[in-house]
Amino acid sequence: MCLGIPGRIVEIRDDSGLRMGTIDFGGVRRDVCLAYLGDDVEIGDYAIVHVGFAISKVDEEEAQRTFEMLKEMGELEDLEWTGEANSGAGPRGTDAA
Amino acid sequence: MKYLSEYRDGKIARRLAAEIRRTASRRWVLMEVCGGQTHTIVKQGIDELLDGAVEMIHGPGCPVCVTPLEQIDRALHLASQPNVIFTSFGDMLRVPGSHADLFQVRARGGDVRIVYSPLDALALAQRHPDRDVVFFAVGFETTAPANAMAVWRAHQLGVTNFSVLVSHVTVPPAMTAILESSDNRVQGFLAAGHVCTVMGWTEYEPIAARYHVPIVVTGFEPVDILEGMLMAVKQLEEGRGEVENQYVRSVQRDGNRPAQELVAKVFALVDRQWRGIGTIPASGLGLREEFAAHDAERKFGAAEITATEPAECRAGDVLRGKMKPHECPAFGTSCKPEHPLGAPMVSSEGACAAYYNYGRFRGAVTSG
Fold first, then answer.
1. Would the ipTM clear 0.90, i.e. be above it?
2. Do A1 and B347 touch (CB under 8 A)?
3. Global pTM value
4. Pick the CATH number of A5-79 from 3.30.930.10, 3.30.70.330, 2.30.30.140, 2.60.40.1740
5. What residue in A sits closest to B142 (Cα-Cα)?
6. Which of A4, B109, B285, B286 could make an SS bond with B168 (beta carbons 3.0 to 4.6 A apart)?
7. E-strand stretches of chain A
8. B324/chain A closest Cα distance in angstroms
9. A51, containing H or E segment
């Protein structure tokens, strides 16, 4: 439940006052809230992400090593899963229900 | 299944395990309070590498497992309401309530959806102003900032059709409850790395000092866990009871301040019932009064629902370390992952499911 997956910040944007971003996890990209990293955050930084929130920055080498380890251990189901909140219309579409 | 020794870090792991065996002059009893660590320890057979130098007790470290039965029943009630879209992290859907689980409610026509992030649930509410979206806000301190943000944003943006069913728990009061228990056997703790990434470790310092017990903030990888164990064993051998940090690449003493601040704005400490354990004072988080409009229990009158836990499930004994999962009479017979009696058999981070999935049946277990 407290699994955190490291990834690389590839985009930073403002969503009505909330700092959001896109994080790349070994090729899979996800929207992530960056609000808890404070102001000291740049594109290219690596962060540990838990339920869509970056909770700490980590260095690149550590991030890559951890990511490979999680992959090897088969612990990356969270990323494969696309979300049912948008059921019927793909990950970013509008749902039909 | 792949054993630890087959991994890239296998050599380091074996070296650490040998050092633990060499350092321990007796068999020490440690508890991890993190379901992720429990999962890794059992899956990788980490305790079995130690040849009895350390006994691991798998503590109440899985939020799914400790969510009380009545809170599950409330979730089932809310998910059955015709205008409600009930959203949850995936691992809550199979947790048995008194009469059903969320998957069954969904099969009967309830609109139950899995979300990856609480912000996905909020976005769903914004897209469906005519429906009530309820999010099942469970978790430890790691997850609290995410859930706090969803409520804070809903409040800020005036999304009145978004509410949360809160069942948040916090780790330090559970550790204290275990240490206070008259038949406690735990001599040292591995504290959860990501809980401490958010909270830091200052809260653990008075516990370590008062009970003279080592508490080592530990990561999730096999090598992290072995290193955390070694640090705890060294402290025990030297007669020290301090907080130490193994997971330095993610955790700082003060934790993540912005996250703590928002959690404190949205939530207040409340007494919380832990499944199988009972009520622990000030061990949970509940919404502050100013966010009452987003409290699903109040909005739908769900607080009136109460439940009694089935006596056959001995989850409480397992979570407190009184019994190993495979020692339970129901283990593998009337209680299996396909038809669990209690939550520790549901979640992949639950001690019972970990024992079941990785073949630790009575007689097949060599240690731990």
1. yes
2. yes
3. 0.92
4. 2.30.30.140
5. A2
6. B285
7. 5-15, 18-25, 28-33, 46-50, 53-58
8. 21
9. none
